[in-house]
Structure formats: structure tokens, C-alpha cells
């Protein structure tokens, strides 16, 4: 049973794919609840209240997937998760409309003094002249970060007759044209906009993007909005520019520290605030919860996840096509690792035939995950495979060849150490399955499965018989046996499979036989 911890308030109805999941137990408790056994948790679902740090991950050795029921993953140490092979998924578009609408509502409220007027009327006042507002019509809205939310906001602003000027270094001219917005530098947006709103993620590049220097490049009387992440606008700098009258007002949904407690912006009447409500609609909460619950279930069902931060997306169709090769690649990596015990400095992979139509980089990562399994403590998978190789100084190369060695496809992997190298080649035969067809200079043909031994020996009469006799005497049943040799009387190999692994004594007895050069267990 997979243990799935829902650590933040996530919409219950949206969690139904996990509540109905027979192979998972859903635990809805805070991360620091003493009843939560962190070391047993397989999946962690959070919103923004839980901060997923490297220290926390250290306490969760079984964790395989972190799901953020929302967009921003700045509360998750994605690098630390990646290093441990933990997939991080989010719900990228479930709350886009809600956040765009909230930003729009904040902008309209700010320009028409709605919160202040509301409070005044409730205080039994009737000050119609105190709350003269400003129209949105004809004003220039500057959008910094033209992704999903920025784009939805732009559409709404245009309907209200606003001009939209955007800054996003990753936005193409074609997309800007399609969205009907004017695209410029940050400096241009700062200089031209009447209202500026930020919609970027919080990253080292965007932290403090709006600071004293950039604020001083804006028009006097500009308005600011932040419904993205606290910290993109430097709060103290903004407070200073509101205080000196340069900024006419600000609407803030998100803070550097949440909840913010006493805050320098709160003393200004022309600053309106909400407690991180961008995604707080029934619709958005249901959407994001459903999206991540489905993703976690798909993951545990062995299906591809769609919205991973640290793994390329793969459609179901492609995943089905790649699946047999993925398994074969892992097996090749594992055989290689078990046959070549020394430290490796290079792994090169050659793909040929039908497999080259697929996403081979995914297979390369599978080869590495098979290779590192049992070699290092860390669970290596497609998420951290390249990183694991890099950290261990192993160069990984991938190439395509037209030589299929007579098969419809083949995957050939060579691991190189200082004075040694070992090659394993496999193929996948439709309606038949995976086969290993080449092992270190020997042509062979065996199913990579179960408990095997790989024996290097001299091709002399009686060797195969002696191996069979010794194992028979010890009541060991040989399930399959394949032999390969280069030339009569020269070096040869045997690959045998058994119902259960050979023990150390049995291995030692075989190793001591005359004409046996070496013997290795291969457990797949
Ligand atoms: N207040 C709330 O409750 C919510 C806040 N958010 C925040 O809004 C952010 C944006 O969300 P989406 O639009 O869905 O993300 P998105 O990924 O679709 O868009 C982000 C855009 O920012 C741009 N960008 C990145 N670095 C930039 C830079 N240095 N300068 C200018 N543009 C830059 C990207 O190119 C991208 O187009 C999220 O990262 C999240 O932190 C999201 C949902 C709810
Ligand atoms: O969980 C929430 O309500 C916050 C949403 C948010 O900030 C996000 O999706 O990035």
C-alpha cells in the first residue's frame, strides 16, 4: 500500500482519484503531526503552507512524488528532490482563470477605492468626494511575465479598453501578435505603464525585480499589483515609493513572509491587500486538487505524469511505445553494472533501427537507472539519472547508428573503466519480448529476467557438463542455459538462469572449476 500524505488543505472532492485508489492509503495530516510516519510516506501533496526543504526530504527516504496543488513550486526545494529522484508535479492551469480574475478584481478595486469606500460606509460615513477613482479605459497596463495568468489578464484588460504592454524575455513576437499586445523591454514597460502587474514565478532572476531602481523608472502616479509571489516586488522599496507619493496605490495578494504580520505597507490607505486569495475559488481548488490527485495515481499505476517540473512530459501513446524499450534499457544497464564491478568513467549508448523513432534520451536515463541500481544508495531514475552520472564523473554519450546487427532494433551499451570495457546489446522483438543478443564480444541470445549467472570459461569438452553436474548435485535446477563462443577451443561464455539465486558457496564451487575464468551473478 502506498502511503499518500496530504499535508495542506486540499479540496476533498478533487482528491477522489486517490480516495478510490485501492493501492494507496490517504493520510490527511499536517507534516509535523506526531502521528505522521515521515519515513513511510510515498507521496506528498501540498499547497503553499508546507515548505518542502532538503531536511524534510532527508526524513522521507521512501518519498517518490511531490505534488503541488497549484502553480508556484517555490515552497519546494526542487533541486534537492531531483537529486533524490523524486518527481515534482504541479497543477499548472487549474487556477489560471481564478488568479487572473482576482488580479483584475484587485486592479478595479484599487482604481475605484472599493475596499476603502466599503469600510467608510460601514463606519456610517457617506464621503462621495473622498473616493474619486480612475478609469481603466485608455490606460496602459504593463504586464511583467506573460504566461498563462498574464495572458488571461491581458484578454480581460483589452475588453475594458486598456492598452497592454508586456515584458517577458521568453515571449515570441508571434505570440505577442496573436495575443494582441505590445511587447517591449522591462524599461519600456516601466516607463510607459499606468498600472504594472507582475506574473512571473519567484526565481533568483525575478526576486526583487521591482526594486528602488526599477521603481524610479516608472511614471509618477503609477499603480502596482502583485498577485504572483511575495518578493518579486521588494516590499520595503514599494512602501518607500508609496510613502513619497510616487506610487499612487498598490494591490497586494502575496507577501515575502505569509502571514506577513505587521507590515510597512499596511499604514497606507491606498494599499489594498488580500491573504493570498488568487487561487481561492471553488472551481480552482477543485481543478488543482483533481489534477494532482490524478497525476499521483497515474504515477503509482506506472503511467506517465503530464505536469512534472523535473521530468519531460510524455503522452500516453508515446509512453506505451517506449515502455518495452524502457524496461530493456534498465535491464541492459543492470547487467552491465553487475558484469563490470569496477568504477566506470564512460557509458556510451548506441541506438539503431525502430527504437531511434522514440525519445531515446528517456531510454538513456533508464540505462543509467539500471546501471546505478545496487551500485549507489540513492534511488536513480529518469529524474536524477544524468545528475547522478555527472556527480560521479561519468561521461554519458548517446548516438544513433544504421547498423541493426540483423534485428529490427538494438540498444548497445558500453561501459568503460580505465583498462577495461564491457558491452551489452539488447533488442526487443515484437510478440516475443526483450533479448540480450551480445555480451562483451560474444553473440548470445537470452531473456533478461530473474536469477542468472554469467560465466566466462574456456571452450573445452566437459565444462558445461561439469557445471550442470555440480549444480544438480546441490539440487539446483537450471531453468535455461545459453552458450556463446568466438571460436572452437577459445574463450566462451554461459548464461544460466535459476528459480532462485545461487548462494555464495555454490558460486565459489563453480568458480573453482577448471577452465572457468570468471563468474558473476546477474539478478534482474
Ligand atoms: N496568488 C496566487 O494565489 C497565485 C499565484 N501564482 C503565481 O503566479 C505565477 C505565474 O503563474 P502562471 O502564469 O501560471 O505561470 P507561467 O509559467 O504560465 O508564466 C510565467 C511567465 O513568466 C515569465 N518569466 C519568467 N521569468 C521572467 C523574468 N525574469 N521576467 C519576465 N518574465 C519572466 C515566463 O516566461 C512565463 O511566461 C506562478 O509562478 C505563481 O507563483 C499562481 C497561481 C495562484
Ligand atoms: O494554494 C494556493 O491557494 C496558492 C496558489 C498559488 O499561489 C499557486 O498556485 O502558485
Question: Any overview of this molecule?
Answer:
With 524 residues, this protein is α/β, with parallel strands linked by helices. It folds into four domains: 1-92 and 281-311, 3-Layer(aba) Sandwich (Rossmann fold), CATH 3.40.50; 96-273, Rossmann fold; 314-438, D-3-phosphoglycerate dehydrogenase, domain 3 (60s Ribosomal Protein L30, Chain: A); 450-524, Alpha-Beta Plaits. It is 31% helix and 24% strand. The protein is built from 16 helices and 22 strands. It has a seven-stranded parallel sheet, with helices on both faces. The protein is elongated. It starts with a strand and ends with a strand. It binds 1,4-dihydronicotinamide adenine dinucleotide (NAI) and 2-oxoglutaric acid. The site of 2-oxoglutaric acid has 10 residues, from loops.
Topology readout:
Blueprint: E1 2-6, H1 16-19, E2 24-28, E3 43-46, H2 54-58, E4 65-68, H3 78-83, E5 87-90, H4 96-111, H5 114-122, E6 140-144, H6 148-159, E7 163-167, H7 173-179, E8 182-183, H8 186-192, E9 195-198, H9 212-215, E10 222-226, H10 235-243, E11 247-252, E12 271-273, H11 282-300, H12 316-339, E13 346-353, H13 360-372, H14 385-391, E14 395-401, E15 409-416, E16 421-429, E17 433-439, E18 442-446, E19 451-458, H15 463-473, E20 478-485, E21 491-498, H16 504-511, E22 516-523
Parallel strand pairs: 1-2, 1-3, 3-4, 4-5, 6-7, 6-9, 7-8, 9-10, 10-11, 11-12, 13-14
Antiparallel strand pairs: 13-15, 15-16, 16-17, 17-18, 19-21, 19-22, 20-21
Helix pairs in contact: 4-6, 12-13, 13-14
GO molecular function: phosphoglycerate dehydrogenase activity
Keywords: Amino-acid biosynthesis, NAD, Oxidoreductase, Serine biosynthesis
Pathway: Amino-acid biosynthesis; L-serine biosynthesis; L-serine from 3-phospho-D-glycerate: step 1/3
Amino acid at each position: 500500500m502506498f502511503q499518500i500524505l496530504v499535508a495542506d488543505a486540499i479540496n476533498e472532492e478533487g482528491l477522489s482519484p486517490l480516495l478510490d485508489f485501492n493501492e494507496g492509503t490517504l493520510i490527511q495530516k499536517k507534516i509535523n503531526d506526531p502521528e505522521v510516519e515521515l519515513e513511510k510516506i510515498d507521496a506528498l501533496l501540498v499547497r503553499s503552507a508546507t515548505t518542502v526543504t532538503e531536511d524534510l526530504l532527508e526524513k522521507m527516504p521512501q518519498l517518490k512524488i511531490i505534488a503541488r496543488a497549484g502553480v508556484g513550486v517555490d515552497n519546494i526545494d526542487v533541486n534537492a528532490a531531483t537529486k533524490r529522484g523524486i518527481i515534482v508535479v504541479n497543477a499548472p492551469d487549474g487556477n489560471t482563470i481564478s488568479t487572473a480574475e482576482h488580479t483584475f478584481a484587485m486592479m478595479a478595486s484599487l482604481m475605484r477605492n472599493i475596499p476603502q469606500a466599503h469600510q467608510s460606509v460601514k463606519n456610517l460615513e457617506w464621503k462621495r468626494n473622498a473616493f474619486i477613482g480612475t478609469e481603466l479605459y485608455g490606460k496602459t497596463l504593463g504586464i511583467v511575465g506573460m504566461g498563462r495568468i498574464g495572458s488571461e489578464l491581458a484578454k480581460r484588460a483589452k475588453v475594458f479598453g486598456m492598452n497592454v504592454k508586456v515584458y517577458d524575455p521568453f515571449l515570441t513576437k508571434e505570440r505577442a501578435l496573436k495575443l494582441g499586445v505590445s511587447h517591449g523591454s522591462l524599461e519600456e514597460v516601466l516607463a510607459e505603464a499606468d498600472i504594472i502587474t507582475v506574473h512571473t514565478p519567484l526565481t533568483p532572476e525575478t526576486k526583487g525585480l521591482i526594486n528602488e531602481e526599477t521603481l524610479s523608472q516608472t511614471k509618477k502616479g503609477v499603480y502596482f499589483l502583485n498577485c504572483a509571489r511575495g518578493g518579486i516586488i521588494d516590499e520595503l522599496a514599494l512602501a518607500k515609493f508609496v510613502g513619497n507619493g510616487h506610487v499612487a496605490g498598490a494591490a497586494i495578494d502575496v507577501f515575502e513572509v505569509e502571514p506577513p504580520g505587521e507590515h510597512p505597507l499596511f499604514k497606507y490607505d491606498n494599499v489594498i491587500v488580500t491573504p493570498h486569495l488568487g487561487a481561492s475559488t471553488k472551481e480552482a481548488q477543485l481543478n488543482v486538487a483533481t489534477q494532482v490527485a490524478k497525476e499521483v495515481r497515474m504515477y503509482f499505476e506506472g503511467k506517465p505524469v503530464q505536469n512534472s517540473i523535473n521530468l519531460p512530459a510524455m503522452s500516453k501513446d508515446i509512453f506505451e511505445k517506449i515502455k518495452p524499450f524502457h524496461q530493456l534499457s534498465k535491464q541492459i544497464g543492470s547487467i552491465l553494472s553487475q558484469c563490470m564491478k569496477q568504477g566506470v568513467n564512460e557509458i556510451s549508448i548506441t541506438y539503431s533501427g525502430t527504437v531511434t523513432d522514440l525519445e531515446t534520451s528517456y531510454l538513456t536515463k533508464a540505462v543509467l537507472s539500471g546501471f546505478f541500481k545496487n551500485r549507489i544508495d540513492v534511488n536513480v531514475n529518469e529524474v536524477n539519472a544524468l545528475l547522478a552520472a555527472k556527480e560521479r564523473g561519468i561521461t554519458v554519450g548517446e548516438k544513433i547508428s544504421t547498423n541493426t546487427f540483423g534485428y529490427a532494433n538494438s540498444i548497445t551499451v558500453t561501459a568503460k573503466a580505465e583498462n577495461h570495457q564491457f558491452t551489452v546489446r539488447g533488442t526487443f522483438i515484437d510478440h516475443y519480448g526483450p533479448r540480450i543478443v551480445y555480451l562483451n564480444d560474444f553473440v548470445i541470445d537470452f531473456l533478461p529476467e530473474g536469477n542468472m549467472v554469467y560465466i566466462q570459461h574456456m571452450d573445452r569438452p566437459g565444462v558445461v557438463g561439469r557445471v550442470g553436474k555440480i549444480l544438480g548435485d546441490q539440487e539446483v535446477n537450471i531453468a535455461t542455459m545459453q552458450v556463446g563462443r568466438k571460436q572452437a577451443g577459445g574463450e566462451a561464455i554461459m548464461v544460466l538462469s535459476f528459480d532462485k539465486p545461487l548462494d555464495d558457496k555454490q558460486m565459489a564451487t563453480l568458480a573453482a572449476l577448471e577452465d572457468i575464468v570468471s563468474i558473476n551473478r546477474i539478478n534482474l
